[in-house]
Amino acid sequence: MLRRHLLTLAALACGASAVHAQGDAAAPAASAYPAKPVRLIVPFPPGGGTDILARLVAAKLSETKPWTVVADNKPGAGGTIGIGEAVKGAPTGYDLVMGQKDNLVIGPWLYKNLPWNPTRDLTAVAHVAYTPVIIATSASSKFKTLADVVSAAKAQPGTVTYGSPGNGTSIHLAGDLFEKAAGIKLSHIPYKGSSPALMDALAGNVDLLVSSLPSAMGQIKSGKLRPLAVTSAVRSSSLPDVATVAESGYPGFDVSTWYGVLAPAGTPAPVVKTLNAEINRLLATPEVKAAIQAQGAEPQAMTSEQFAALLKKEYGEWKGIVEASGARIE
């Protein structure tokens, strides 16, 4: 009996030693992250708001830490192709994606039979920024104010055109919601990303541009694009002289978009914690704050849990908005 008891204690001691050894082996592996280059997938073409913020994060992480973070554009299907590629990546922290409202909480209700679910197949890592949508026009346009647009649209329904980064994006739906609020009919021209929509607006091929502010800020600053209104509840700190849609006669109007870094589901918690801490550290620096605000966005740090809660909440909320718009892509 005593011998059996001693053998049991010996076995337990060996097991405890093995667990302790495994823990010791795992700790250096977690602390060594990243041990190789990290890919940050950008699900939109170069030059748009998502691309600008992704490249800023990648560059600053590479500058301030001994990391190599490479932005990799994988555009298509309203950003859902890039998200899909991230979902298929190994859950090791070396395949990340800069997602945003359009492809994470709107795309799944817009595109039929997407093979992934954002709340099931992705891990929220770090929220980066939010931004209002801007309604703008070429500096040479006849439209000087939002009221001018409404008057023209009421006089000749469907003749005023606006370009957006794509059918069913939050930006397109902001335009759709504005039409409903103002009681007007505009003609929506969807593009494959923000940059081509911007170029056509500058050329006068569409009357209006509805865009994320980061995508349009450079041309607004240059004087080539005239901002008419922002869609957020309050004015943008980057464009304090530009009225909101709500201030322009449509109380309660509030549409904005957001951006954040995500990883494949199952990415180890220590890796997520490391990434969250480093991105939040960047967002707190005056240099990065200023760079984000210069693009028309507002930096906003969150814990990974807070970002996950935001994703889950808006994923549920936007189902009804997409259905009411009638937007659908087969």
Automatic annotation (TrEMBL):
The organism's place on the tree of life at top rank: Bacteria
Gene3D superfamilies (alphabetical): Bordetella uptake gene, domain 1, Periplasmic binding protein-like II
Family matches, as Pfam families: TctC
Keywords, sorted A to Z: Signal
Signal peptide: 1-21
InterPro entries: BUG, Bug_dom1
CDD domains associated with the record: PBP2_Bug27 (cd13578)
Family designation: Belongs to the UPF0065 (bug) family.
Protein name as annotated: LacI family transcriptional regulator
Biological source species: Pulveribacter suum
